[in-house]
Design a protein that fits this description.
The chain has about 150 residues and is an alpha/beta fold. It is about 20% helix and about 40% strand. The chain is globular.
Length: about 150
């Protein structure tokens, strides 16, 4: 599972000109599901995102987490995070997850985020969406569960 987390002052996602999801100060999370991803990746990825300390803590440092600022979240599905551009000029998306399973995991990710954050909005899985944001910083983080440390047993 891969995510691009953008610290935003506001973000929204539209389908056919209608805003279907938005957030104020917090995160825009572009979420990609890959082949072989499971519910275990949801928990690991969300816990990392939720605990990231990338907001100013009063001394202009990155010491505050989402919970510290009463932040909001907008989650948008983004299978193109699995683009393979090594050959030719047309990306291959064979590493992206099966659409039905990816939709299920995307929805579970949103559901998981809602357990911790009062305002979590999302895009429409598989739709042609237009995303607008005001990136704060700019501050953008890329996470891949294949590259994150696995929890100790």
């Amino acid at each position: 599972m891969r995510a691009v987390i953008q610290r935003v002052t506001q973000a929204s996602v539209s389908v056919e000109g209608e805003v279907i999801g938005s957030c104020k100060r917090g995160y825009l999370v572009l979420l990609g599901v890959g082949q072989g991803d499971t519910e275990a990746e949801i928990e690991r990825l969300w816990n990392k995102i939720y605990k990231l300390r990338i907001f100013p803590d009063g001394e202009h440092h990155t010491g505050a987490a989402l919970v510290d600022i009463d932040g909001e979240v907008l989650v948008v599905s983004q299978f193109t995070l699995y683009a393979d551009c090594r050959k030719g000029n047309r990306p291959s998306f064979t590493a992206a997850g099966d659409p039905d399973e990816s939709k299920r995991l995307f929805e579970l990710f949103v559901e998981r985020a809602r357990k911790d954050v009062p305002h979590v909005a999302c895009g429409e899985f598989g739709a042609d969406m237009q995303v607008s944001l005001l990136n704060d910083g700019p501050f953008t983080i890329y996470l891949d569960t294949d590259e994150m440390a696995k929890p100790r047993r």
